[in-house]
Amino acid sequence: MTRPFIRSIQVEASETNNDLPESNEIQVYEELQEAPEVTKTNAAPRNSFKYKSSHPKELIIGIKESPRKTRSSFRNEDSLVGLISMIEPTKIEEALKDDAWIVAMQEELNQFQRNDVWTLVPKPKSKNIIGTKWVFRNKLNEQGEVVRNKARLVAQGYSQQEEIDFTETFAPVARLEAIRLLLSYAVNHGITLYQMDVKSAFLNGVIAEEVYVKQPPSFEDLACPEHVFRLKKSLYGLKQAPRA
User: Which contacts of 175-179 are long-range, i.e. CB under 8 A and separated by 24 or more positions?
Assistant: First the structure.
């Protein structure tokens, strides 16, 4: 019985190691003699896999019926890094198909809960119920790259009735002259000034009016789908939101 693997190793050793002493060659041959013989019974079966030009369908992850995507088509696709979407949905139905925007909407509702913005109550009969809407925006960095998906729940303030749902709508902002006076006073007396930005600032303003809004679209309470929210604090889109 021939030993093809022994013969190939001996030839390779003789070709690559011509300077080896004779004792090393004998030692290698003796070790190979102890190796088990390769017969047809214990030989490895031949690989029957056939290479194909297309990827096997059983190994495709995702929708198998979707067309093949080229490199240029991926520019409008969602980014899988950190669950950041590159597309700004215009409707809630589009946002619900993307996990990144679902997470963004849930973060917005968590802000409502932390700030104690509203409370769920039965729908009153003689009160104006204001609708709500989701607005989706991509936040960019200095390089113009999308770094965060922002979903904001806003009230449809156009349906508010004056003297019932709101009274004053002005925003209490500082005059430019007052800011200049403050900066001059700080420089003259060596005072350090700090500037800060409040996240979801409108959700911190308490409102005096009795305002009711509908539940967020696609996030209704399954136990009380007909209930509405009574606002304790201001909401983006309300007429009195800047004043609060």
Answer: none
Residue among 133, 132, 135 at smallest CA distance from 88: 135
Closest CA to 67 of 80, 81, 54, 82: 54
d(CA 113, CA 150): 17
- CA torsion sign for 112, 118, 123, 128 is negative
Nearest to 128 by CA among 160, 104, 151: 160
Q: Which residues are CB-contacts of 154 (< 8 A; sequence separation ≥ 6)?
A: 132, 133, 134, 135, 235, 236, 237
Token representation of residue 126: 């003689």
Nearest alpha carbon to residue 198 among 166, 232, 231, 233? 233
Q: What average pLDDT does this structure show over 223-234?
A: 89
Cross-sheet strand order for the sheet of 212-213:
118-121, 228-231, 212-213, 129-130
pLDDT tens for 162-198 read 655 555 655 667 788 999 999 999 999 999 998 877 6
With tokens 């420089």, the residue in question is 187
pLDDT tens-digit profile of 106-147? Answer: 999 998 888 888 999 999 988 888 889 999 999 888 888 888
How many alpha carbons fall within 13 Å on the CB side of residue 39?
5
Shortest CA distance to 198 belongs to which of 130, 133, 135, 244?
244
Place of tokens 């190796």: 35
Helix runs in the chain, H state only: 4-16, 22-33, 92-95, 99-114, 176-189
Contact 95, 89 (CB under 8 A): yes
